[in-house]
Amino acid sequence: MRPGGAPRVLPCYSVLVESPELMIYGKLVAGAIGFLVLGPIGLLLGLLVGHSFDKGLRRTFQFGSPAQLERVRQSFSESCFSLLGHVAKADGQVSEQEIAQAELIMRQLGVQGDQRQAAIGFFQRGAAAGFQPEPLIAGFREQCSGHRQLTQTLLIFLISMAAADGEIASSEREVLQSCASFLGYGAAEFAHLLEMVQAQSHFHRGAKPPPNTDLLVDAYLALGVSRDCDDRSLKRAYRRLMSEHHPDKLIAQGVPEDMLKLGTEKSQEIQAAYELIRKQRKAIGRG
């Protein structure tokens, strides 16, 4: 967050969002072209096309407005901590490790003071009997439409909660699969993400992978590639993942600045996995 708590926003955003009269260029240009080509009928068609363009442009700029970023932040916080509680209670009880994981996520997101109390309330609500995640997720998807990275981050947090006590129980996996489905992930897509996230976590700074873990196998899983892929495919997968978590790209997608640190941490995990593969390939004469 910037001093005073205001999210970073480019100056032109606020001008365009606060000045609806400026958002008419699409109508003017399309209307003029339509009139020149087809006369009055073309003018009407051009205005319709231009209106759609202006509407889309306005929505794009609003992704970066302070008001929209705050709505996104609030929706993410409520959805995240409610669903974390839901996942934690999936196996019947909330463990100390799962409480510690929720505390860790609060620190990662910079949740303090009143926001922290609200997050605890959301977590407790999600852990309560009878909690229904679908309406909450539907609201999140509506509010955060176009913020694909936020959706993936939410699901990654849920996976980390399920794995907090060392393994993902079948009941937790079912809840994760259900939440992923509501978030728009197919079964195969979710299984692939789950595999990658679990492998990437072994490369987190200070992490202690389970005994007998083959880190080289995990490195390939972390990058989402097969062990027999060529160097070109390996580098392409690495660059794609690094691009997804680049701060500038996250900001452009409307990700609140409090969450940019998570992108940096994820990039470090991906880089560590990639470097391990490159080192091994060089040792055997492949790289």
Structure description:
The chain starts with 10 loop residues before the first helix and ends with a helix. With 287 residues, it is mainly α. It has helices at residues 11-18, 25-38, 40-62, 66-88, 96-108, 113-127, 133-143, 148-162, 170-182, 187-201, 215-223, 231-244, 247-252, 260-283. Helix 12 packs antiparallel against helix 14. The radius of gyration is 23 Å and the shape is globular. The model is unreliable at 1-27 and 53-63 (pLDDT under 50). It has three domains: 3-62; 67-185, Orthogonal Bundle (TerB-like), CATH 1.10.3680; 186-287, Helix Hairpins (Orthogonal Bundle), CATH 1.10.287.
Total of domains = 3
Structural class: mainly alpha
CATH topology of the largest domain: TerB-like
Largest beta-sheet characterization: none
- Please trace the helix and strand order, writing H or E for each element: HHHHHHHHHHHHHH
Number of strands: 0
The number of helices is: 14
CATH architecture label name of the largest domain: Orthogonal Bundle
Low-confidence sequence ranges? 1-27, 53-63
Q: Please report the distance between the alpha carbons of the first and last residues.
A: 42 Å
Query: Which CATH class of the largest domain?
Result: Mainly Alpha
Over the alpha carbons, how many angstroms does the gyration radius reach?
23 Å
Strand content: under 5%
Q: Tell me, what's the shape?
A: globular
Report helical residue fraction.
over 70%
Return the average pLDDT rounded to an integer: 78
